[in-house]
Each structure stands twice: as structure tokens, then as C-alpha cells.
User: Fold this.
Amino acid sequence: MVAGTFKESTDWQGAGWAFSVWAAHFSALWGASSAFPVDPAARWIALVATVLALAALALVWRRRRDIGGGFVLPLALGLSAVAILFGALPALVG
Amino acid sequence: MSPPISMVLPMTDAQTVFDAWWGWPPPVLDPAGPYAESVTVLAWALFAMGAVVTAIVAAALYVALFGPAKLKARIGGEKTVWIMGIAFPGVVLLGLLVWGLTLTASLTDPIRGDEQRIRVTGHMWWWDVEYLDAQGRVVLRDANEVHLPVGRPVVLELRSADVIHSFWVPNLSGKKDMIPGRTNLLKVQAEKAGYFGGVCAEYCGGPHALMGFVAVAHEDADYRRFIAGEPLGVPSLAEQQDVPGQLPALARRTGAVAPVSAQAGAVGGALDGEALFMANGCAACHRVAGTEANGLAGPDLTHLSRRLTLAAGVLPNNRGSLQGWIADSQAIKPGNRMPSYDLLSAQDVAAIAEWLDTPR
Amino acid sequence: MSETGFDHALYDRFPTQGPRPEGELEELERIWCKPTGWQLLTAVNNNYIGIYYVGTAFLFFLLAGVLSLGMRVQLAAPMQEFLPLETYNQFFTMHGTVMMFLFAVPMVEAIGVLLLPQMLAARDLPFPRLSAYAFWAYFVGGLLFFCSLFVGLAPDGGWFMYPPLTSIAYSPGINTDFWLLGIGFIEISAIAGAIEIIVGVLRTRAPGMTLSRMPIFAWAMLVFAVMIVVAFPSVILGTLLLELERAFNWPFFDPTRGGDPLLWQHLFWFFGHPEVYIIFLPAAGLMSMMVATIARTELVGYRLNVLAIIATGFISFGVWAHHMFSTGMPRVSTGYFSAASMAVSLPAGIQVFCWIATLASGRIRWSVPALFVVGGLLVFVMGGLTGVMVGMVPFDWQAHDTYFIVAHLHYVLIGGMVLPMFGAFYYWFGMTSARPLSERLGGWVFWLIFSGIHITFLPMHLTGLMGMPRRVYTYLPDRGLDLLNLVSTVGAFVIAAGVLLFVVDLFRNFRFSAEEEAGNVYGGGTLEWLPTGLYSTRSIPLVRSREPLWDDPGLARRVEEGRYFLPGSATGLRETLITSPINAEPQYLQIMPGPSPWPLAAAVGTALHFLALTVQAYGFSLVCGLVAVACVLRWLWETDRPLKHEEADVGAGIVLPVAITGPSSHGWWALNTLMVVMGMIAFMAVFAYLYLYGIHPEVWIAPPPLWQSGLVAGLAAAALGLAWASRAVLARSPKGVFPGQGPWLLAALGSGALAASAWLNWTGWQDAGLDAAASGQGATVFALAAFQGVCAAIAVIMAHYLGYRSGRGLLTGPANVTLDIVVRFIGYVALQGLLTALVVRFFPGG
Assistant:
């Protein structure tokens, strides 16, 4: 692969942001379930955190979609969203 | 191997104790109650998933390495990764996750309060078992066996007296840790009478490998007799003079399994056994209800005559192994907290064993 | 459009034309001369340190493997007496500990040290002496630690060291202290290596090597190193707390006094599970590199693969408590960890199918590395699938702590790390040896190891389901376990035969050489296959693609002719090009330190310091500690020296500054990384504090009075201000002019304020009636205060070092690297003190 320019075209930092949102979401959920092990409050916090996290992913997309790099940012946001939704399931199903 | 000991409980037919514990079929896949059964179903589904995915990967790999060019070209691109590496596992994992979560919820259904309560406390390296009434009073104290009523839920209150242990009877449910400073609750239920092997699953130092127990599920009437402390129809130890065939290695090592009849010696009779028990300091650690022996550091020996095993699931309980255990417990279970009483004469050991054998 | 203001049009000047000056290459060879005799001990060049490092790690692999054979003999039949139980317990503890801490992590780090500079076409890693220190600390510390086995003092609490089994009540001997101090110390060495790798990957790439053109191994090592920086502080803190509990009776893990045994499990597994990926990712990077060469095509899904590596780096931090499902944690919590355990499988799937697709898209050339790559992939997939199984909470309740898990983890780690490692040995052997390894014997090695794995570990799935727990020194007969265990034992010896055959081949064919090496046996396309000497490549190429050697066949020749950057030495010293983190634009020339005995001396001093602590020779320990500090300062002394050149021509008339200061300098980046490490330690300590409050709030007492907290915070804030002022005063001084003693005095005053703040914080809690030995609150508060005190003491030492340099007139305006580092450290410690003191004094409010 011989690319012409010497400028990075992929938004790798955006991927970092996407997964940072997952990390924050995970911390919020685990923190809540540890602080309120039997209280339904933990579930409500989890649901609110999930909505906020998805909104944050959308924000990352709005802010960075023009930087370029093809599927990397959308896929990073997608993987992060899947992990966030997986993470929200225990508050709904469990 | 030598013939099994014939310790027939009322509710079993020819089933033998040691045979029933482990072995085939694997107890994880041989559930005896609802808290294990649903996990067995899950386990088979997971094995199937594992086999199918392994086959898919192996097939893809085979095509990639040796396949015809046309097939190779079809999987030799990023599309393969999107479909096989992202979409397919994503769907499978989502399904598994939902199953796992709902199953976890159903296995940890709330305690209703009318279950049989049993408090099990892990010690290095044995189990203190207390049967509680609804108010939490101890109605029976026993060790190294957990007796359950068939068809009724039981809540085990799991605690530890020293380090972390883990209570596991694979036929009945998954394991739960016994953690100092905490009480963990584990709900189990046996749907059929029988013997189920249990072990300590968390490494607890020293002879952790030899920290087992037996779970025994009884029909209701038998269970009431057990709680009342009545004999269970187990042949008394005195009648079981045969050397246990199960443990030739242990037998060789202890060298004391050929039982000595107490009556044959100068000292005989149950009364002398009690005196020897007290005089040699056994009472400092062991309790025998109705006597002065009230130690709490070791297993309660009140109902030793009813026990199936000695040394926490290691030796079959009979006169010979009991004498061997008293004389040389360190050779059988190295590092355990009971010293070998190898200075006692064979007659003294026999007398103590005979006294302990007395049904109470 | 440029990241640094560097004009990309300047790249058009390469390759340069015309003859190179006489003697340029000879000068390069003289500067990077080969060490001989005793100099081999003072060498700091990555070719040497890398080989020492790989060799030592492999030695530990063999040693831990021998332990496993002992264990398998003991378990070959029920109630065997081959190993007494005390020995067996030490064996399995040491097997796990040595494999994880002394083999796996050091091995991947070592491969990084050996390969990265060449892959990135840097002359060396950015801190060669730090690599040397990290290696020697690991070498001396690791061997001493292993020797505890020969005197029966090896740890026996399992590699996970759960208290209270490892507390003083149940493990009174010094065996446990060997583990805590030995491993804590080796972790420090791993962190030093990680800092080196982060800065190396981000700042020493060849010009033009943008992030997307990095060899995928460099990506993996970058994420690996960041994960180490985040994860290892947790276990370092854990070992410190447990050692404090053992030595001073501070009850972190004692539930009778407001501690909790599960706190250890959280701290340990927060490190322990990312650790698995820390081991796997670099090996996966090696796989990706080898797959491309084997299939003779570029990696399919490069960006997918990089994304998978990044995703794994994050999500693997959300799975630690799946080791704790059976501890009785809240059901919803188990769900979160189960969900993350499922999610983390996705990136692994991406990587596996990237490899398969690559193999399908190219034309396979069969070779020993190819065998190991394909075998590793299969074994890893099987281990990953059992991993999905045990990620399910209900199934884990059954499988946890049984031989099913033993099977699972060995499949994952052998398939994910050991087999790729063997493949990499064959693949990159030509880089360091004059003769390649034998392809014929290699086939035997592979098939023996590969079949041995399945013979050993496949039956263990079944023994686990049959109820055989882990960590048992024996099992009872007549439970159906005899035959399966015997098969496993046979398999272990089959693996051992394969490894032995490899060692034989190693002795036959390993001839160390950095110049006359066997070379690119398998036809790789990345920069490490350029012709090299100890100075790495003659000139540093301009990188235009991911596999420059495939895309530009003339590149090697032109590099060798010196037609690119730095064709000789611009300053007459060891040097490398520092480039920008994203686009790799040339920024400045770094002068590199050469061989030195001080890293070795400092490492021996540090190792003896910890060893003496273990055997409770406190006086000797103190002396060794001081010697180590003195050696470190001595080695640093030479690294910030006045320069003859301020600018240098790095080739084609491009002039770059030499050794800059400030936020673009590589030292600044390293310090920031170190601050992340310290911040993580403080963060985990605050977590411990809050966690214990959540479990046992009843033992909490009221904090000291408000005015005192204000004073503690005020002193810390003053330190922050003084540190800032110190730098500002120096900045007013004109270039090269000595500003007098003002700057260092301000820094010293700042460090004094830090010490006063820490002291006041400590005594204030004492006056408030808090006793470290009395409660979980006391233990955690004083642990935080002690950590702050140690940091303040280091700041004081650094300020004095700065003063000494100032006294010699070495601090000149307007900026100085040493001063930058010292005042930045003081500023960080001030912030850390401020935050930690305020958290424990105001939350949860007493």
C-alpha cells in the first residue's frame, strides 16, 4: 500500500473517545450496583446512564464525523454502543 | 478395586456411598435438583455452541489454507471479518447473555423464609454444620455432612471461621464462597434421595485437596429422624470390621486400619474410652453432647456413629479407619489441626474409637 | 495541514543524491561500538538488552515448565507421594506466579524492546538506560525470587494470594513476603519498560510513519504498555497494603476490624484480568505480522484489527469481577461483568477472522512460523469459547475453581501467547542470529507441542466437570479421575519434549549477531528487515506505506547508502530522531546516553533492598536503598548535559533542534506517563477507602478539624504555586545564562511545603484519635498519608539534586529539562496530596 500523503487520515482518537464513553458508563453502573446492592435505585441509575452514554456517543459522532477515516469511527462507536447495551441488559433482565 | 462398603441407607437401594459421589456421569451434568438442572441445560447448549463455532473456524481455516481459489477468494476479504467476526458473534453473544441473565435471576430467587435453614461454617479443613429452626436456634450440630429433605428448598448460610473456603455440591447447585466476615446464602433443593459429593473449591492452604463432605438427601420421614438425632439404620461401626478397600494408599500409609478390639486388651468398655478421651485432651477441641467434652475448634463428635466419612470426606467411617485416624491423622491428612496420637497404645485407641462409636 | 509545522514538501528531498562523505559510516560504527568482555554488563543498546531480556524470560518459561512437570507427576495417580503437600503448594504457586510475572509479561515486553526500534527504524529506545535498569532489576529480582524455592521459602498461597490465607495469622512465614515484595518489585520494572515503550512508539517512529502505517505489533505494544500503566498500579497497591497488614497489623483485609478480604480480590483482579490481555495483545500483534508474511499479502482488515486492539484495551478493564462471581456479589453486578465479558469477545473474533481472511487472500508459504500461527489460532479459539462459557454466571458457578478453568486458561494463554511466541522465535530469529533455526526440527517441535497441548488440557475440561477442584495436591481414588489425569501427565511430557527439542535447536544454531545475521528468511515487508548494525539502520528511511520493503524494492539499498535521515551522526554522539505522535513529523534530535554501569548497580541495589526487607534485615535494606537512589541520580547526572550543538542537520539540509525542553520533549511524555502510574496508585487507594466505608461504615470516626484540613490543603497549594514560580523565574533568564540560585530554592521551598503538608496530615489524623491498626478507616487513611509522605520525600530528594546541579552552574535559562521534571513532579504531588487529603477528610463526612 503506497499512500500519497504524510498526514494521518484515520480518526484513531475518536475511537479512544468512543470507548471512553463505555468506560464511564461501566463505572457508573458498577458503582451504583455496589452502592445500592438491593435498592432499585441502581437500576434507574443504570438506565439513565445508558441514555446519557448513547447521547455521548452521538455527540462524538457529530463532532468528529468530518475528520475522516472511513468506517473506523462508526465501527468504534458501534462496538462501544453494543458494549453499552450489553452492559445495560443486567439492569433490565436480571 | 475392592468391594464397596455396604452402608445402606433406608432410601437407597444397592447404591454405595463412594460410588455415588463422583465419577460418571460428571456431577455437573447429572443434576439432582432445580438449581443444578437449568445449569446443566445451559452447559449442554454452551458445549454445542463451542463445538459448532470451533467447526466453523476450522472449516474457514481449512478453506483459507487448502481450499479452491474460488472459495478462498470469497472469504479472503474484509467482508468475512464483518460477517463472521462481528455480526455472527454479536448475535450469538447477545442471545447467550440474555439467557445467562434470566437464568441467574431465576437461580437467585428471593428467600421466602420458610425454607429449611442450615448453617455451614468452613474451617481449615472441615465443615461445621448446624441445623437451625425457623427462629435461627441450633437444633442439631454436626460436621462434614449436609443432610437435606427431598423436595423442599434449603437455604444454606455459608460462613468461614478462618480463611476463604467455597461450598460446592455440583449435583445440587453451583458453588458459593465462604468469606470471613460475611454470610453468603445459597439456596438448593434436592429432587431425589441420594448421596452427593461436595468439596471445598477455593484454595484454603495445606490439605485443601482433602476437604470434602457428603450431601445426603432424605425423604421427609428420614430427614425428621436425622434432625431428631436418631440412628438412621446405618450398621454400627462395630459390625463393619472389614478394611475399607477404597483407600489402599491411605491404608498402607496409616498402618493402623486393622482394627483392634478394645475388649481384647487390658482396658475395655465404653466408659474407659470416655476417660481416655478426656485425659488425652480430645475434649479441648471436640464436643460430645451429654458429656464434659465441649470443644469447638474441631468437628462435633456427638453423632460420629452416624457419619459416613472421617476426616472430611476422606476415609469411609468404620472402626478400623477411625482407629487409624486417631493414631496417625497426620499421615492421612498432612497438616490438619489434629495431632497424631501415636503414643497411645492400640488398646487405648480402640477404646476411644469404641466410645465414639456409641450412638447418641 | 501539518501537526508540528514541519513542511511536508521537505520530504521530497529524499532519497538524497550524490556521494556521502568519507568515514561517515565508520563514525556511526565507532559511536555505536560493540561491547566486549565486561562491557557486556554495561551495554544499554536494545540489541543487547533485548536479547538478555528474551533469554531470561525464556529461562523462566523453562523453570516454570519444570515445576508443572513435577505437579503432573504428583497428579498422575491418586494419593501419590511424589511431592509432599507443602512442596506441591509452593510448586503450583510458583508455576502460576513465574509464568505470569516472570515469563509472560517480561517476554512480550522483551520482544518489544528487541524488535520495536528496528520496526520503527529508530536508533534505539528513547531511554536506553531505563531499559537496562528494568532488565537488570527483573533479572536479579526474578532469580532471587525463584531461588526461594530451593530453601523451602517459596510462597504457597496461590498466585492470587487471597487473604486471609496470606495474612500473618495463617501464613506466618516469610514465604508470602517473598511474593509480595518480589512481585511488587518486578512490577515496577514492568512499568519502567511500559513507559519506555509508550514513548518509543509514539515519539521515535521513522518520519512519515503515520499511526495508520505503524506495523501492527507497534499498535499492540502501545496498547499493551498503556494497559500496564493503568492496571499494574492496582496490584502494586494491593501488595503494599497486604505487606502493611502483615508487618504493622493494619487491618485492610481483616473483617473483625472493618477490613474486607474481598478488597484484595478487587485490587488483584483489576490488574489480573487485564493482565491476560496484556499478555495476549502483543502476541496477537506478532500473529498479525507473521500472518501477512506467511500469506505473502498485506493484512486483511488492518484498521479493523487495530480497532479490535484498542477495544480490547478498554473493555478488558470491565471484566475483572468475573473471577469473583461466586463471592456472593449482588446479582446485578455479576450481570455487568458478564456483559462486559461477552462484549470483549467481539474484538477477539475480529482479530481471528482478520487472520483467516488474510490467509485466504494470499498464497501460503508453509514454514514453521506458519504452523505455529495456524496452530495458535485454533488453540486460542477453543480457549476463547470456553471463556465465553465461563463468562456466563450460572455456568461459572459450576466451573469456577475447577480443572475446567485450568483447561480454559491454558488454551487461551498457550494459543494466544506461547504458540505465537514460538512462531515469532522462528520468524525473527534471523534478526539476531547468524544462523536460522532448523525448519525440519521446527516441524517436530510444533507437532509435539501442539498435540501435547490437547493431550494435556482437553481431558481437564472433563475432570473439572467431574468435580475436581483446582490447586489440589492429590485426589482420592475411585472417582473416575485416575485415567484422565494420567493422560494429562503424559501430554505434559509430550509438550516438554517439544520444548526440549527447541532448546536443542537453539543451542545448535544461535549465534548472536546484529550485523552478519541470517536475515529475512521468511520475506517480511516491514522495516526491521532493513540491513542493520547496532545503530539500527544506516539512515532512517522516509516511510510511505505499511510494508515499505514490499512496496519499494530499492529501499534497502538506498537506506544502506545513507540516502535518508541521519545518514551519519550529526553531533558525534548517540542520537535518534524524535517525531510527532500522529504523523511522525521530525521534531528534534535526541542525544542518547551510552553504556553505563549505573543502571546495573541501581538494579542490584534495588533488588537487594527488597530482598533484605523480605528477610527483615532492615538496616542492610536501608543501605541498599540509599545506594540504589545514589546510583540512579548518578546515571541521570550525565543525561542532561550542556550541548555543543543547538541545531543539527539531520539529512538533506533539514535542520532540527537538538534536545528540546517542554511539552514536546520525550522526557516530558515519560514523566506524564509516570504521573498516570502514581495517580492510579492514589486512585486505587481512594477506592479502597471508599470500598471499606461501604462495607463497614460503623468503624468510621470523625475527621480532624476543618482549619487543619484547610492548612493541609493550603500547604499543598503553596507547593503547587512555588513549583510554577520556579519554572517562571528560570524562564526570565536569557538563553544559556545561569539565573542564580532562585529557581532551585523555590523548588526546594515547594518540596518543603509538600513535606509539611504530608506531616500535618499524618499527625492531624493521629491527634483526631485515628489508629492505623484499629480500623479499616485508620488503615486506608494512613496508607494514603504514607504514600503521600513517600512522594513528598522523593520530591525533597529531587529538589536537592536540582540544587546540587544548580550549584555546579548547570541550570541555565530559559528552560532546563531537569528543572522541568522536578517542578512538574512537585506540582503533581501537590495536587495528589490536595485531592487525597480532602477526599478522606470530607467524604463521607465522618
Summary: Chain B has three domains: 33-107, 116-227, 237-357. Residues 237-357 of chain B form a domain with the Immunoglobulin-like fold (CATH 2.60.40.420). The radius of gyration of chain B is 25 Å.
